[in-house]
Amino acid sequence: MYTELLANIAILVLSGFVGFAVISKVPNTLHTPLMSGTNAIHGIVVLGALVVLGKVENPPWGLQVILFVALVFGTINVVGGFVVTDRMLAMFKSKPTPTAVAVEKGGDK
């Protein structure tokens, strides 16, 4: 079991280095689509954590903690992604002209 744990830790560390190398090469114009993909992946993490937490009978305490942390961080990232997307979309909405606002309120015509 100890060698399996070391192998898993080595894979985790190497995947972190590979992820950093790949992300650092992405041009600035592609960061928004990349973040959308990341939010989708975190949605899958949330779903996976819920499925595993619900299916396993009497999960060990450590597994419960890991699944709970994955659930919390994944949920925070998904909600944050929706908030950022809403802010970005709000930047592209056209602002009403002052005369249009006055007409809507029943002011000067």
Question: Which secondary structure elements does this structure contain, and how are they paired or packed?
Answer:
Blueprint (H helix, E strand, L loop, with lengths): L1 H23 L6 H25 L5 H32 L5 H7 L5
Helix pairs in contact: 2-3
* Averaged pLDDT: 83
Strand-residue fraction?
A: under 5%
Cα-to-Cα separation, first versus last residue:
79 Å
Task: Decide which structural class fits the backbone.
Answer: mainly alpha
| Residue share in helix | over 70%
Please count the beta strands (DSSP E, at least 2 residues each). Answer: 0
Query: Biggest sheet: strands, sense, closure?
Result: none
- Counted by DSSP, the helix tally is 4
Order of helices and strands: HHHH
Q: Which ranges are low-confidence, i.e. pLDDT below 50, for 5 or more consecutive residues? A: none
- Shape descriptor reads elongated
Instruction: Count the domains.
Output: 1
- Output the radius of gyration: 22 Å
Function: The transhydrogenation between NADH and NADP is coupled to respiration and ATP hydrolysis and functions as a proton pump across the membrane.
Catalytic activity: NAD(+) + NADPH + H(+)(in) = NADH + NADP(+) + H(+)(out)
Protein name: proton-translocating NAD(P)(+) transhydrogenase
Enzyme class: translocase
